[in-house]
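ok so I'm stuck.
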Amino acid sequence: MIWWPLLAAGPALAATTSGPRGVLGVGLLAAAVAVMLGIQDGVPGSEMVAVLSAVVAVTLASGLAGALRERREQVLADVRSVAEAAQHALLKPVPETVGPFRAAVRYSAAAAEARIGGDLYALVSTPYGVRTIVGDVRGKGLPAVGTAALVLGVFREAAYDEPDLLAVVGRIERSLARNLGSDDFVTAVVAGYPRTGHLEVVNCGHAPPLLVRGDGSIMALDPAHPAPPLGLRALSGLAPSLQVLPFADGEQLLLYTDGVTEARNDGREFYPLAEGLARHVSDEPARTLTALHDELLAHVGGRLHDDAALLLLRKPATLDAAGSERAVPEPGSEAARGCLPVPSHRSS
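replied:
not stuck anymore, here's the structure
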């Protein structure tokens, strides 16, 4: 009978997985077993009352704990639902095909339960070609999410209105200057594809994009004239510059945030993104990013300590009847309409 009091452990353990009803059922079973054992062994009534009182007290306390646990789980589920809705509103899903490009995105927030963080991305098709932005807000939490929402809202509007990519960046800069504190800023890369075979890149203090050539070689697009992050132009007096690069069919562009390149393993070694991209690059952007993301998580042991975003664009080509590759006609282009090509013009 020295193990008799341990019957009270039943409802206590039930509270970890069950609600009040489950705890009450286990408590009633424990009390019934206690009475049966007490009668069988002739336990004095005072001892039986003491044990039953303990079982009842533990059952009531465990039932309350189970009810509180269920309530917290419901609140957490509601928070997750709101976070997912906010993520879809803020970071809209990127379709597999945008203009002439195949695209894919992978995003991981450091706060796993929050689902969203300070990293941002957007990819839109505009009258001036496909335009994209990938950035990283200084700080974390709700203030960073609010700043990311501000940047994305201005970008999506300016990308449709401004014919020049530097003008898009200028509108974002002016908006941040009005709304951010003196110590706040956003690093970002804004890229555009205004005409066939030409890629425009504006880097504002962000990690350089990686360009995958048709032969599989990888080149970091370091800016010729480094510019400060968005929100700090007034302090530095430096304006961003526009890089114009050739971008042929079959080539790919990877934009990312520092949560990827600054991810460390147990040996404090950074994740080698360029080497990982070379290992996993393929003709399917989604498959490439899935392999990269899985390798990144394996590198850090399964949990990132900073927000991480990856956005990959690929300009595909198709095979003609002779089996050779040809460019995919872009929507609205002369080739797509069956007309002869004419010289393109871009306003400065």
